[in-house]
Amino acid sequence: MTLYVAFVLHIYQPPTQTPAILKKIIKESYLPLFEVIVKNPETRITFNINGSLIELLDLYEENRLLDIIKSLVIKDQIDLIGSSCYHAILPLIPQEEITRQIKLNEEIYNKVLGENVFKPKGFWLPEMAYEYGVIEPLIAENFEWTVISSVATPEVELPDDFIPFVKSNFKIYFRNDLLSNLVSFKDPTVEEFYQELKGTKNPENDDYYVILAMDGETYGHHIKGLIEKFFEPLIAKINQDSDVKLVKIAEIPQYFSQEKKVNPVPSTWSTTAEDLQQGVPFPLWSDPNNRIHNLQLTVMNHTLFLVGKAQRYFTNDHKQPKEIITRYENARTWLDKGLHSCQLWWASGRPWYSSEMILKGLNQLILASSEALKVVLKNCTENNEIKTVKRVFNEIFEAQKEIYLSV
Fold this sequence. Notes:
The protein is an alpha/beta fold. It is 49% helix and 13% strand. Strand 6 and strand 7 form a beta hairpin.
């Protein structure tokens, strides 16, 4: 019998990331990490690489890294899964924006890596932010499964020998939070981790699986030397153990046929049991007790409203001046990027805080709302509608001032 181990590594940089920091992370983490996989051709790993990072790698001509990624996909060593292009927290945005983020993600992949390289069936929920409402747009875009935190499982025991599903055509896998966080925060030795990985079950008697999911930047960037002293020897140890098999998540149903319906609770991979008791499922991105979060979400939701109005008036008349076309396209682009989660995360103070990252994200949304307002005012003749959009923009401006005073 066998223990099946599935790694999911999530690598992402916000659209506001600086070239200097990006190149540092590439050198410390991304290139060494992928080079280990290249050197171990039997290795199978699932990756999420958000379109925003692929876009930055293309912009700064990081062709060596892009070529390695494409080669590993073609060789079937890594499985790329879909996501929100700019890492929006999906439960916080409308379903039409979820769909747009998915399509933008695919467009960037097709442009940079070429058609037919990116064929995802799995989906990465940014920050594993799950609630039931996000599933329908994923199914509509032909995704078949996702991975969420074990804090969300309604089961007493973490599912490890059957396939959980929330709908007949959509599976939900649960990462092992304890083991994943052991790597990310405790810096164990390979031997210590391996004993924990095998757990209390005996692979001589039972088939079971373990899902490990974490930020790829953990390796080499967040924790120096973790690739050489942990990741590479762990991969070698697994590959040498006849009772343990490294698989991609998409391969798990080949080994486990039993399925059971589950009803996960809304949560993220940073949500604690205490957060759930307090009714705060997304605490690092939408904490009702966090004043800055409340202001940021006001700006975000009002910007969504204004860009939606701009789209309505823009699409109703195809004879638009070039200036209005440009303004509308600017509004959409700034909003797409301005939905990224980092500005909210850096306002959480759990434990990290950065006024710079908060204001960078705020600026993208302000630019989007300003451009959208101009599109509406140019096309709209209804006085009540004009009053409404002006009032909404003024509320954005007031929230902006409050954020500047608060950070």
